[in-house]
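Box S2. Input/output pair 1.
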Amino acid sequence: MTGREDLLLGFRLAVGGGRGSIIRLVLSTVGIGLAVAILLIGSSAGTVKENRDQRAYAASPRNEPIPGVTPLNYSATKTDFRGQAIALVHLQPTGPTSPIPPGVDRLPAPGEVFLSPKLEELVASDTSGLLRPRLPGKPVGIIDAAAVLNPNDLVAYVGTDELSGGIATYAFGSDYGYETPFERGILSLLLVGLFVLLTPVFIFVGTVSRLGGASRDRRLAALRLAGSSLNQLRRITAAESLVGAVAGLVAGGASFLLFRGAVADFQVFRFGVYPKDLTPSWPLVALIVLVIPALTVATAGAAQRHTVVEPLGVVRETTPPQRRLWWRLLPVVAGIALIAPDLGVASELGRFALIGGAVLLMLGIPALLPWLLDRVVSRIKGGPPSFQLAIRRLRNDSGTPSRVVAGLCVVLAGAIGLQSLLTGQAVLTAGYEDRTEGRATVHADGPVADRAVAAVRAVPGAADFQTMRSMFVDANSALASFAVADCATIEAATTATGCRDGDVFTGTTSIQKGQTVKLVDNDKRERPWTVPVTPRPLEVKQSGLAEQLAVHVLATPAAVAGVDLAAAPVTVSLRGTTGDPDFVELVRNSVAPYSGQVTVASYNGKRASDEARMFDDARNILFGGALLVLLLAGVSLLVLAQEQVRERRRALGALSATGVPVRVIVRSLLWQNGIPLLLGIVVATATAIALAALARRLFWDGLYVEWSAVGMLIAAAVAMVLLVTASTVPSVRSAAKAENLRTE
């Protein structure tokens, strides 16, 4: 036969070889398809980052003067509505050539607002009526979704003719470095997680490619008897493997497209994904299309390296391979060598070293596990019959189960290690949380300060007011934070007692009675002030208003009599007494007419800082990714278990015929899957903690192992083995029937 005919024969054997061939094709398609979908998602990471950078670049204001352009007064503020952040971008043109932000075709006039698509949906769905007054104008249009940084961002462009303190903007499209050190650290960890979670995918593809090895060998022996040469057998084997690979590529591509259409609501901390963002680069797509079939063909060929196919049957080399340790330690040593130097995560070199070292450590698991499994099972003796059957099977063939379990343990190790790092950072960055007993803080610029304070005091249920008017004090050419407050506020925000109007309090700043200093406001206007009394020591209370404003000098109103403070901003702290859960929303609505000049902040005991939430979200992403790859491992393990039952049906029937109960056979399968898994869990946990211990100093010095997450991942792996074993019970019962031996 010609080479083309050999390939066609292989195709016919794969799809037309009876029910067994169809089952193997379906199982391999599912396994390879899931792996391809995961690889396509991972290969889209570069496009996601690039598209996001482009949107951030396009929306960033440029303040370098441009000839012929009248600047746009630009001010971005935020408000919250029931825990959702809303960005209010105030725009005040100064002439006909003022620039227009991306996403709209004109600037909003005073009293008009443009809303992002998600904000428009939120306004339309709000039945409480509390959100609409927050928007200082009439909605007149929608911001193009392609110009919004994240799909779920709530953004409003607000037109105004009264804006102070804005940025003079001459164009949009500056190179805006929006990534903070925290975000760079998280990005590095997510990249490590991406590579770690993708590493075992290739292991699972190789495992699925070995399906039907025994049946394939028997078919090849028949073809050898019919006169086929060894080269022809290799081509037929390659064609059979390619059918499953191509079907898996098609199924994986279809699954990826279905997932891509549903990612518009996917958002993690400050990052969101549009469907068009999830587009893998063509070089990576081509690489996946080439690597997956090549890997399946190479794996199928490698599976036959210890098999001699002759016309009268199949002979397998029965001597187990002698596994050597030295080369299996090389990935571990190389990984430690890359991570151990403190290169940092802000540099590209540090990121590549961290990613490469982590991947090498993960590759050490599949390299070491077969060697360890051989050593362990060779020293185990005794036990119940089911245990002895499993040990005997593992001694004869420990490579196949260790390969699947190794891939699963790579996922466990990567997930546990990254969970430990991210948990540590979340704990260390979660200190900035509410200790203010549910108080709200209102900060108003000087021009509207008095009107804003009056509006806040009129909110129903508002009580327990603490008010400070802030400036800076210039004493001996050193600026320090200065505030004016009444005695009730001072005693509530500091440890001072017996305060009297006319007192002055100071902390680290050295000022003395009779000394003349300068009071400086935000516009750098200076006012002379003579300290009227000897200052008393200042010690602020934790989370009090004085600590929030970082006040170094406090004065009572009588102590600054005669000094014009009308332009100084005012900060008010208050709490509600009615128990209304929307009290803070009422406060925000009361100052909505002064949007852009007044901000309202409210914290609670359960709300962590932005950085802590970022680490928490990243941890949840990696946890979900680990569970997804564990699902792929479960599919591979299920495929392997079903195939082993099919290939060993003669042996299982013989065991049953000699009186071995089916339950003993099932328990032996459980031991056969469970022993490599338990050994792999120990190796994976040790590797994960070592990875976290090596990498922790690249971020902070804290190492926290979240044993609950570790337990959940291990429990998921154990449960998966139990389910896989339970799924083989019907097949074992069928194979153990005595009538199956009649044809053997």
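Box S3. Input/output pair 2.
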Amino acid sequence: MKVDPSGLSRAARLTALAGLCLVTVLLLLPAAISVSTGGTAPEFLGEFGRWLWPAVGVIVLVAVVLTVWERVRGHETSSRSAALNRVEARVKALLASSLAAQTQVKLGVLRQPKLSVRADGDEISSTDLPAVYDRLGHTMVLVGPVGSGRSTLLRELCLVLVERARNDPGAPIPVVVDLATWRPYGARKPTEFTAWLLREMNRRYGISRSAGTIWLRRNRVAVLVDGLDEVPRADREHCESELAPFASVVVSTGPIENLPSAHVDPLSRGEVLEYVASVSPRLDSLEAALTPEVWEQLTSPLALNLLALTHLDKQVDTIGTDLVGSFVVERLSGQHGAGPAIRALKFLARLGRPNLGAPVHMPHRRAWLPLLPTRPLWLLFIRAVPAAFAGGVCAVTFITGLQLGFWSALTFVVSASLMLVWVNKLPHVFHPPGRAHGLITAGMGFLAGLVMGLLVGFVGLWLGGIATPWPYFAAYAFVVVATFFLALGFVPGDAPVPWSILITAAPGVSMVWVGPHSVLAGMGLGFSAGVAGGVFAAAVGRVWRTVRPAQHQRMRLGRPWWVQPAVPLAGAVGLLGGIASFGSWGAALGVALGLMVTPVAARDYVWPFDALAEWAAEGLTRPLSLGELSFRRTALLHLAEDRLLLTRVDGEYRFTHVVVRDHLAACDPTALVRATRR
């Protein structure tokens, strides 16, 4: 009997984990607690009694590592029989979740029309795809139009090959992989096709990467490739060249060079009529309503399934030629409040994600922000952003005046107002034609800015207080050096050094009278506010650059009347914190010096400000997706699954067919809602 090495490895991990837990709970932890409360350690521990708590910590850490390892690798296998079982289980689940299988359940029929294939050079078609596969040398392209049943044939062939592999130890293990999850370029580097294939085999079928590498090298795996049509056209040629050394069967709408083709035959009129008769009496009125235009489209199982599901148990007088549109309308009709569901499905369809059931892990904003309508973008740029900036200025001004005095707060208000224009990020806001108020959005943005401003102010006070115990000369030297480097980033042009030296002379001379510690206190708060303001401005700029040119054209350049005065007015309110004390000029000078970091923080290529700006940009845009994809995402997915618009395999939601997805992606939600109400 062959022993599965992965099974032995997993048994060893579980045994070690159980042993560590028993030793910790029954021995080490009680002894450590006893020693901590004044007791004594067991005699057999001897001098090791003082290391009880470190030992408990190490064992807990090892147990956590073993647990994580078990979660990550616990389902991996290098066993041939286990791999075949998992392939069979998943392929059967794919077949059961397909639109064809769901149609069989709804209609109560035993099977779909039997599809025929014809290899290049053959005059007679065959319904025995495995025989065609053998005759073509176990390598072929399954060619047919979208909806012709190619994916179903591929999965049925996989089940046949699974049985062959069980009976013949020398036969390869078949695996079905979907190219919808492959892209030629990842986030930072090209995607190596072999690595992607091994990752898919591991994720879908639990085949360990080491075993998968060996099996691929020895041709012990037959790779059945689906989803080639989902690869962007610009990457299709590259994809075909990458999969050629591995692929055994490829599903495609057209032939591939140097690979033999097997063409899926269209359905005949007799097969369609035979299928309609098998569902009697639930489709009795359908045959008389079939016009020549409809007959031209009834050449694929997909068209037949859509037609049957749309007109099931109904008296049919006329049939439209838009079979997909009629199916979607029928599936969504009678649904209370269908508008948000349709908008969400359209958003998911255009998003093009392999797994629709993981909306929490939204992709980068470049993938979905251009899909939004104009109004949420208007609310972001015209209401939320200026209000948040004004709220932040108000909060920081109040903290500055309360702790450093009126002059420091006034310096911050004036500097922030000038920076608003000088950085040239926030004043360039946009609004579309039409009337939209969004005062609630502005209020929420102001409160968010207020909270963040208070946080920034407290951080600045902490930074300024760090240097309080420093000696006079150390604080003096730090202010001079820090001012010089801040001025280097602040002064534009190719020769900033002379200007930086000139700017550095101001605090160098002033500290003779005001002292360096008061300047440092102001610099800490100014630096904190400058970094926050610059990062915020850079984040807004990044979000705007993500918006599509078509969305730009639907907006007209302009500035709401209250954007420019909002910052100084909000700052004037914050000046109330400094009325009780005018403070020192040294702190005011420090605030101005610290704020010189703002242009540097607003640049997209300076680390770590660029990373902070990217994080802030994602945080700004995430709430915008709620207008298209609400918090009730689970209920939406269940509804769409019940209506046969979505299917679920391995816990992942996908559209039942690519044509359904494309129709929803291109639909007009308003027109679709009206059609469902008729």
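Caption for Box S3: The CA atoms of residues 471 and 517 lie 9 Å apart. The two ends are 66 Å apart (CA to CA).
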